[in-house]
Amino acid sequence: MIQLGVNIDHVATVRQARRGSEPDPVRAAHEAELGGADGITVHLREDRRHIQDRDVERLAEQVQVKFNLEMAATDEMLAIAERVRPHAAMLVPEGRHEITTEGGLDVLAQQDRLKDVVARLRAAECFVSVFIDPDPRQAEAAGRIGFDVCEVHTGPYAHLYGRTGGDFRRPELLAALNEVAETGGVARSAGMRFNAGHALNYFNVTPIAALPGVEELHIGHAIVSRAVFEGMRGAVREMKRLMVEAAAGHRGVPGPERNGGAS
To answer: Is the Cβ–Cβ distance between 238 and 201 less than 8 Å?
Structure first.
């Protein structure tokens, strides 16, 4: 069954607006679990703009499902992962100027460095993944390095979905969906798991969840936004329902072309 990893960074964004104690990301994680989340994700950024070190420590102790730590491939973050030992660690690019992660990690450009990073995380008993753009060459490089998972960046697809109103008769939208599918197929052929995420919401998630072989979606902002009005538990439950139904074949949009996607 397709799985949902809930990113709770923006619960901490609200808290940090007042540098207070609420809303508490740990409580958000518990509510997400009760709503059906299969994993909890946070990104400990170098500037600590939302999630703090203490949040990571508490979540590692208290999360009952898979705990995934997104991180830059820096010595500081590696040391934290080695100490905290999350179930999974995902390497992402990071820029101080960006509001959120805006692109995939360029695996091709730093293969030797990343081999060392993966080895250190594996020694800390972490399942290791990498966030990449929808580019088969990046997936091939990730396979050579030895990552366990490729998470394919769905931001370009999500942008086109919004711009076209979700009209899959528009060739550019279908092409963006097929790029995600093709990259995921290459990842699977290289022996890695195919995950996807970024900018997914309650409207554009269905075609991604229906892709062949996709195992897990990571979704944060849309769920936290809906939780403002409906509560975290209900927001997670509804997203999970949409994903599971799409993965089972109950979708109302044209599917992607299957060439390049593993089944």
So the answer is: no
Task: Write out pLDDT tens, residues 110-151.
Answer: 999 999 999 999 999 999 999 999 999 999 999 999 999 999
Q: 155-189: per-residue pLDDT in tens? A: 999 999 999 999 999 999 999 999 999 999 999 99
Which residue shows structure tokens 């540098």?
Answer: 19
Structural domain includes residue 255: no
Active site residues: 43, 70, 198
Task: Decide if 94 is inside a domain.
Answer: yes
Residue 86: exposure state from Cβ atoms within 10 A (0-12, 13-18, ≥19)? buried
The CATH number of whichever domain residue 187 belongs to comes to: 3.20.20.70
Question: How does DSSP classify residue 256?
Answer: P
Give the whole-angstrom CA distance, residue 122 versus residue 127. 7
Q: How many domains does the chain have?
A: 1
Task: Find the largest Cα–Cα distance for the chain.
Answer: 50
The domain of 34 spans 3-247
